[in-house]
Specification:
It is built from seven helices and no strands. The chain has 105 residues and is mostly helical. The radius of gyration is 16 Å and the shape is globular.
């Protein structure tokens, strides 16, 4: 199991996409749900997936910290997205997220 944790991303994206499609097939947000599900299954998303080791080390750090912080920026793009969120308007940030996930506007 240790080797798997160090070398292969999890199947979280496809599991999340399946659940999203299952729960949003006929709802008001079905177009957005389909777009996000597609994004989660994309090759680009697979390249951005964090290895379980990265996430588990952060969780370990959080649960053993004497004074844990409120948030732990972990994984691909976490810090740049947090920085971007702080410097651009809500509309600009939403546009970036929409374009990267393929959400319909």
């Amino acid at each position: 199991m240790r080797v798997a944790l160090e070398s292969a991303p999890t199947e979280w994206g496809s599991i999340a996409a399946d659940q999203l499609e299952k729960s949003s097939t006929d709802g008001a947000h079905s177009r957005q749900a389909d777009a996000v599900a597609s994004s989660l299954r994309s090759e680009a998303a697979a390249k951005r997936d964090s290895l379980p080791k990265v996430i588990s080390e952060t969780i370990g750090k959080a649960v053993t910290a004497r004074r844990p912080t409120t948030r732990y920026a972990t994984g691909f793009g976490a810090r740049p997205l947090i920085a971007l969120r702080r410097i651009v308007s809500d509309r600009a940030f939403d546009t970036v997220i929409s374009r990267t996930t393929g959400l319909p506007t």
